[in-house]
C-alpha cells in the first residue's frame, strides 16, 4: 500500500455566513470544489461535528469533512470521524490557509509543526500525532504584504481583490494535486502545485 493512501480530506474554516469569504476559510473553499469534482455533496453529521461527503476511489471510500466547530476545535470532528472509520493519522489530508506562503503559492507536506495555526494545533492534539498530510494554501502575511493589520484580524477578512485570481488559480492546481495524491503519486501531487512560469499554458 502506498504511504500516500488518503482516506480522509479535511477542509478547515469557521462556520457561519460571516466567515465564508475570509482567508481562514480557503480550506472550506477547496473542500467544496473537490466535492464538485467527485460528484458528491455534504450532509450534516452531528456525530462527527461537521459536514461530511463521501466518494469512491479504486482503493475504497474517501471522506470529505468540514468541521462545524470553530477553527480551534477542528480536531474534535477529525478524531470522531477517524476513530469511527478506523482511519490512521497518516491517511488524513488537511486543507488549510497558510500565512507563510504568498497568495497563490501552494505546498504539500506530511507532518511538521502547526506554526500557530489553531486548526492544525487542535488536530495534532486530538489525534496525538502531527503525521497527517497538509495542503498549505498560501494567503500571504499582513507584514510581507505591507499591511498594518494583526494576523487574527487579517485571516478573518476577505482576500484583497488583486490576490483573489492568484488564490483561485492555486486552488485549481490543488485539485489536480489532490487527484494525484489519491492515486498514490506524491511526486506528481507536489509538481502539480508549481506556479506556471511566464509563457506556460
Can you give me a brief rundown of this structure?
The protein is an alpha/beta fold. It is 31% helix and 20% strand.
What's the CATH class, please? Alpha Beta
Look up the CATH topology: Rossmann fold
Task: Describe the largest sheet.
Answer: 7 strands, mixed
Number of domains: 1
User: Helix coverage percent of residues?
Assistant: 25-40%
Low-confidence stretches: none
Strands side by side in the biggest sheet: 2-3-4-1-5-7-6
Helix-strand makeup class: alpha/beta
InterPro entries: Pept_tRNA_hydro, Pept_tRNA_hydro_CS, Pept_tRNA_hydro_sf
Catalytic activity: an N-acyl-L-alpha-aminoacyl-tRNA + H2O = an N-acyl-L-amino acid + a tRNA + H(+)
EC number: 3.1.1.29
Family: Belongs to the PTH family.
Summarize the topology.
Blueprint: E1 8-11, H1 26-37, E2 43-45, E3 50-57, E4 60-67, H2 74-84, E5 92-98, E6 106-110, H3 118-127, E7 133-138, H4 151-155, H5 164-182, H6 186-191
Parallel strand pairs: 1-4, 1-5, 5-7
Antiparallel strand pairs: 2-3, 3-4, 6-7
Helix pairs in contact: 2-3
Amino acid at each position: 500500500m502506498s504511504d500516500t493512501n488518503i482516506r480522509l480530506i479535511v477542509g478547515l474554516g469557521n462556520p457561519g455566513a460571516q466567515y465564508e469569504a475570509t482567508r481562514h476559510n480557503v480550506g472550506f473553499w477547496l473542500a467544496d470544489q473537490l466535492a464538485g469534482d467527485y460528484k458528491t455533496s455534504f450532509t450534516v453529521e452531528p456525530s462527527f461535528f461537521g459536514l461530511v461527503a463521501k466518494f469512491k476511489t479504486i482503493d475504497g471510500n474517501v471522506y470529505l469533512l468540514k468541521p462545524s466547530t470553530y477553527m480551534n476545535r477542528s480536531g474534535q470532528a477529525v478524531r470522531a470521524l477517524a476513530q469511527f472509520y478506523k482511519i490512521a493519522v497518516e491517511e488524513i489530508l488537511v486543507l488549510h490557509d497558510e500565512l507563510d506562503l504568498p497568495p497563490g503559492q501552494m505546498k504539500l507536506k506530511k507532518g511538521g509543526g502547526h506554526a500557530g495555526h489553531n486548526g492544525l494545533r487542535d488536530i495534532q492534539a486530538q489525534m496525538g500525532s502531527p503525521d497527517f498530510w497538509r495542503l498549505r494554501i498560501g494567503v500571504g502575511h499582513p507584514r510581507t504584504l505591507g499591511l498594518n493589520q494583526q494576523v487574527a484580524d487579517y485571516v478573518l477578512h476577505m482576500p484583497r481583490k488583486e490576490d483573489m485570481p492568484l488564490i483561485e488559480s492555486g486552488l485549481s492546481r490543488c485539485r489536480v494535486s489532490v487527484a494525484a495524491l489519491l492515486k498514490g503519486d506524491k511526486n506528481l501531487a507536489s509538481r502539480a502545485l508549481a506556479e506556471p512560469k511566464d509563457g506556460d499554458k
